[in-house]
């Protein structure tokens, strides 16, 4: 039924994105259930994984899930990632059958792309743990472009030039990357938020897994950490049907156009950005990112 509910979503153009709440764009299916979304009841032991799209959400889900299981990967090998960490914005309200968030036993793992200020208030009220992963804007833009090409439920992206403009101006689903990463950054010390970077995980997964184990209060021995690194490597996640989204039909994710597990690199933007685009990006970046915000590495 989850796949069926996705299939019923109509493809739109970037111009048809709903200028949803406070200028943040959303696909219409998110806006249609906005009220239920805001009334979502978080539980104190929920863990929320929040990202701007393409920041390595699925990678983080896999890491957090295995850390919470104390390094035991067996449970993760049975159930697709999208069922282990349901997507909050597309979580259908009752009376949909059990299996999604409302009927899922605690402790739940929940995925969202919402900016901090648009989260259902219960996450803050319940003082939930939240893991935020940020990825540098240039790689995120390129990854999001290829994702639009293959994800038939996102708007038609047009060509790279058009998409580049839309990304810079925040006219993409879930809005402005700049507002997203800085909005979560400002709140990170006010709530139980662990703020991680894609580039750091790529550089030293063991170090970032240690942060997760500390944050989630799950002790891991060296062997467990090694197992998690292996299980969540790009190569393994690309082959694993539970993490590579190959279970979704081609009229949702057409992986012949671009695989979900595409490259997983830092600095791939260099294969896509023209010199002029890079100059424009750098200029706007300096204006839009405050000195007090997070600082990103565009290459390792
Ligand atoms: P690319 O398109 O650059 O390859 P999300 O899960 O937020 O949709 O992000 C998807 C991006 O994260 C894709 O980036 C994907 O390849 C990358 N990714 C997913 N798992 C990864 C892993 N284990 N190692 C490195 N990158 C990974």
Q: Helix and strand succession?
A: HEEHHEHHEHEHHHEHHHHH
Would you tell me which CATH topology applies?
Rossmann fold
CATH fourth-tier homologous superfamily:
P-loop containing nucleotide triphosphate hydrolases
What percentage of the residues does DSSP assign to strands (E)? 5-15%
Beta-strand segment tally:
6
Overall form: globular
Q: Report low-confidence residues grouped into runs of 5 or more.
A: none
Query: How many helices in DSSP terms?
Result: 14
Please give a handful of descriptors for the protein shown.
single chain, 9% strand, alpha/beta, four-stranded parallel β-sheet, 300 residues, two-stranded antiparallel sheet, Rossmann fold, 39% helix, 6 strands, binds adenosine-3'-5'-diphosphate
């Amino acid at each position: 039924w989850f796949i069926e509910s996705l299939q019923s979503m109509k493809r739109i153009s970037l111009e048809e994105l709903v200028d949803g709440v406070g200028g943040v764009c959303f696909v219409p299916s998110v806006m249609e259930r906005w009220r239920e979304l805001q009334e979502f009841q978080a539980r104190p032991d929920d863990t929320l994984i929040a990202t701007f799209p393409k920041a390595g959400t699925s990678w983080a889900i896999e890491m957090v899930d295995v850390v919470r299981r104390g390094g035991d990967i067996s449970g993760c090998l049975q159930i697709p990632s999208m069922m282990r960490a349901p997507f909050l914005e597309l979580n259908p309200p009752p009376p949909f059958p059990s299996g999604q968030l409302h009927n899922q036993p605690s402790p739940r793992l929940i995925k969202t792309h919402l900016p901090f200020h648009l989260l259902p208030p219960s996450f803050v009220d319940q003082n939930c743990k939240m893991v935020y992963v940020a990825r540098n804007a240039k790689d995120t833009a390129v990854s999001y472009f290829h994702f639009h090409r293959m994800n038939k439920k996102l708007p038609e992206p047009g060509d790279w030039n058009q998409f580049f403009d839309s990304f810079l101006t925040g006219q993409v689903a879930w809005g402005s990357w700049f507002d997203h990463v800085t909005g979560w950054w400002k709140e990170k010390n006010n709530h139980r938020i662990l703020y991680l970077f894609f580039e750091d995980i790529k550089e030293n997964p063991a170090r970032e897994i240690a942060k997760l184990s500390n944050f989630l209060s799950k002790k891991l021995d060296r062997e467990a950490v090694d197992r998690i690194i292996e299980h969540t490597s790009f190569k393994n996640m690309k082959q694993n049907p539970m993490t590579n989204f190959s279970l979704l039909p081609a009229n949702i994710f057409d992986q012949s156009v671009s695989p979900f597990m595409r490259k997983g690199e830092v600095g791939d933007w260099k294969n896509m950005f023209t010199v002029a685009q890079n100059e424009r990006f750098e200029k706007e970046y300096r204006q839009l990112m405050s000195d007090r915000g997070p600082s990103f590495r565009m290459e390792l």
